[in-house]
Amino acid sequence: MKQDIKYNDDTFTVKAYGAKNEKNQELVEMDIERPMINDNEVIIDVLYSGVCHSDIHQVANDWDNTRYPCVPGHEVIGKIVKAGSKTSKFKVGDIVGVGCMIDSCQTCAQCKNDEEQFCTGPKGPTMTYNGYFGDPDSDFNTYGGYASHIVSTEEFLLKIPKSLDIKKAAPILCAGVTTYSPLNHWNVKKGDKVGIVGIGGLGHMAVQIAKAMGAEVTAITTSKSKKQDALDLGADAVLISEDEEDMKANQMKFSFILVTIPDPFDVNPYIDLIAPRGSLVTVGLLAPYKEPTNNMTVAMYSRQLGGSLIGGIKETQEVLDFCAKHDILPEVEMINIENINEAFKKVNQEKVRFRYVIDMKS
């Protein structure tokens, strides 16, 4: 992809790959205009951009909120090429990460509590792509990391630990924090029996993180072919969810279950696996369960069901540092941006082993 920036009076133009509209969802090369940076913002030359399942959902307007043209990408690692006059923590030439958000009000109680994803300011959090400032009816739209350059507020930049391979680290900025956050907030610790449902882009990170937290980890999957992969990632055991006898033998076993299935599914078979007063948390699913929850089995054993989305900037930095400390990296396959539509198809067909990362310079 061409990397030149064309500067205008109040904007600058860069190359990107995006979907033009809902009827034309194939990603194509296009020129996009970004507003000229403010004093507290930077321009980043994108080096690597992870391919998240939410990119596919957003392009397809599966959540009925997509703004077109839609340029996805919120797992970004790149180099700062221009910095506003009031930036102080980062400088031109620094390698940085950009995750799911690029700004928020930074003054509300949630932002001050380092949970910018819950920003209650008048504009809410500004998402890295498909974002707008408070008014859903406005024409404003943010464009993500499937582009030669991206802009972020300095406060939303992440430091990439030197021990992490920047070619592989990009998915930590979403998949990493999406799984780390609930494991952290539900206080998963040494000796806990933890189940990770779905061993894909999110689940393969969750297995590694939970294991590093000291938990006894069981990977729960429909695919027998992923058994060895799960064990190689550090899982202590593998449970095949389509094996009724195996599922029955593991009832009431787990104090915490993290479900990473991205599409509607029947949660009830997994509820039976939760120990009394245990918890099940779903990530990656922004839709109802496929079947109604059996609240009898929830209440009878004082089980908790919850959901989680991403994490704040502090927590995202925490997971980067945690992964560096415990030598955790996503399992990735590198692709060129020209192959992004084929990559989307393979993700939907579950033909990607774990995670794609786009080498934006190849």
Account of the 3D structure:
There is one protein chain. With 362 residues, this protein is of the alpha/beta class. The protein has two domains: 6-173 and 331-359, Alpha-Beta Complex (Quinone Oxidoreductase, Chain A, domain 1), CATH 3.90.180; 175-308, NAD(P)-binding Rossmann-like Domain (Rossmann fold), CATH 3.40.50.720. It has helices spanning 53-59, 109-112, 175-185, 203-212, 227-233, 244-249, 268-271, 295-300, 313-325, 340-348, and strands at 6-7, 11-18, 28-35, 41-51, 76-83, 95-98, 101-103, 126-127, 149-153, 157-159, 193-197, 216-221, 237-240, 254-259, 274-283, 304-308, 332-335, 355-359. The termini are close together. The model has no long low-confidence stretch (mean pLDDT 95).
**What is the string of helix and strand elements?**
EEEEHEEEHEEEHEHEHEHEHEHEHEHE
Could you list the spans in which at least 5 consecutive residues all have pLDDT below 50? none
Gross geometry: globular
**Cα radius of gyration in angstroms:** 20 Å
CATH homology superfamily name of the largest domain? Medium-chain alcohol dehydrogenases, catalytic domain
Portion of residues in helices?
10-25%
- N- to C-terminal separation? 8 Å
Give the CATH architecture of the largest domain.
Answer: Alpha-Beta Complex
Structural class: alpha/beta
Secondary structure: number of strands:
18
Q: Report the CATH topology name of the largest domain.
A: Quinone Oxidoreductase, Chain A, domain 1
Strand content: 25-35%
What is the typical, i.e. mean, pLDDT? 95
Number of domains in the coordinates? Answer: 2
Class of the largest domain in CATH?
Alpha Beta
**How many strands, which pairing sense, and closed or not: the largest β-sheet?**
7 strands, mixed
